């Protein structure tokens, strides 16, 4: 049976090719005979030479310095050993996977499917006060998560370890196929994130306000507002466009 590999990247910034990977970590989940998923022993992390200086403001987040990565492998050389596997993966996963996908391109992953634990948490645990990896960690409190292994925050292996425990519990509530499907869509937000309606459930908003938010610049907000309008019979969700990445 194919495992699911949770990956986490630390980088010099958020926008390749201007920015690059400086650390990768992973934690595998494996299926059990009863259909559940368990945390596997297979995990790891190593530093990557990003081929450029790491900005001081970024060092302040993950504490990886230029001296730390000197002599480490480059991302294109090292990525296949993490992102590819004989027999393949059921899926790759990450918290806010769209960030990792910028660096883990279809060429490097051989077109693997992705699960975004952030998008899935929005649907499965809408009552959570926060949907950050650490916010979910302390709100949901996954069984068996060893506190010390999930630290320090903003390092690749500890963050992948935490995300894997959250994903394990999500897989008890929904199939891998369902999680992949949700992950391919924009985020379905439970509450308004900004403005006068901040903190208000989308379900409680009047239709006029939803129609305004359906034109918002934020794609997750537009999708969520339209989703609720459609449930009320007052709108229609746009069909996702097929991209070259999807066809890879």
TrEMBL record:
CDD domains hit by this protein: DEDDh
Domain Exonuclease: 3-176
GO terms for cellular component: cytosol
GO MF entry, a single one: 3'-5' exonuclease activity
GO biological process, one term: DNA replication proofreading
Cited InterPro entries: Ribonucl_H, RNaseH-like_sf, RNaseH_sf
Pfam family, one: RNase_T
Protein name: DNA polymerase III subunit epsilon
Native organism: Pacificimonas flava
């Amino acid at each position: 049976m194919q495992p699911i590999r949770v990956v986490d990247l630390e980088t010099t910034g958020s926008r390749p090719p201007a920015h690059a990977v400086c650390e990768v970590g992973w934690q595998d989940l494996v299926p059990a005979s009863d259909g559940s998923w368990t945390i596997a022993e297979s995990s790891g992390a190593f530093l990557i030479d990003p081929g450029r200086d790491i900005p001081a403001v970024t060092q302040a987040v993950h504490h990886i310095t230029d001296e730390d990565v000197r002599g480490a492998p480059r991302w294109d050389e090292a990525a296949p050993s993490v992102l590819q596997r004989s027999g393949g993966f059921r899926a790759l996963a990450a918290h806010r996977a769209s960030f990792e996908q910028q660096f883990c391109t279809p060429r490097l992953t051989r077109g693997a499917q992705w699960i975004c634990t952030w998008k899935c948490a929005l649907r499965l645990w809408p009552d959570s006060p926060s949907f950050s990896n650490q916010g979910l960690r302390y709100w949901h409190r996954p069984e068996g998560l060893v506190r010390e292994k999930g630290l320090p925050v903003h390092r690749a292996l500890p963050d992948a370890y935490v995300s894997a425990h959250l994903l394990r519990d999500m897989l008890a509530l929904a199939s891998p196929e369902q999680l992949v499907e949700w992950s391919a869509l924009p985020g379905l937000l439970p509450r308004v994130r900004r403005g006068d309606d901040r903190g208000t459930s989308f379900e409680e908003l009047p239709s006029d306000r939803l129609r305004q938010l359906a034109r918002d610049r934020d794609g997750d907000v537009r999708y969520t507002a339209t989703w609720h309008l459609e449930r009320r019979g007052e709108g229609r969700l746009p069909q996702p466009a097929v991209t070259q990445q999807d066809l890879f």
